[in-house]
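HUMAN: Spend a minute on the protein record below and explain its fold to me.
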Amino acid sequence: MEDATKSAIPAGVHVSGPNERESYWQPVPANGYVDVALAPHIVPMESPFGMGTQSLAPGGYVREHTHDRNEEAVYIIEGHGRAVIDGKEFPLVPDTAIFLPKNVRHMFINDGDTKLRWVWLIVPNGLEDFFRQIGKPRKPGDRVPSNFPRPENVLEIERQTVFGADLKDKFDPLKQI
């Protein structure tokens, strides 16, 4: 965004275009990327939240998990897939909205032929910290990297950010296909 335009913005307002955001490639099994649009480290806010987008490649999925201290909202903007919420499956198509209270098991699966993309909002924030710690920096125009593993200490990173205890009986989408 041009500096003259930014200088005309009232104090406290933050506006960013798609090429001006933090972005991180994600490891397996997601194999997509995350953009962080808003968070307390980007703009001061009275009620801290994190917001951005996540894209999953075909065949990718977000492992089943919970948030024990956070509420989450998801809004599908492109692609097709399914959500598994407390063991029940829901189709994901554009304009699907999901609210997830604390401690609800959930996962997202791209079983379509194109990327599955959604807006995420988490209150309070912290999901952006997780993405930063497990991902690799991404810039617009970068080539998609080869699949890479999650860090060995991913469970510790999860607990230090916004995730509940590790689920020993996670839903396995590969057994369900």
Observations:
- Residues 127-134 form the longest helix (8 residues).
- Residues 81 and 110 are 4 Å apart (CA to CA).
- Helices lie at 3-7, 127-134, 154-160, 173-176.
- The mean pLDDT is 93.
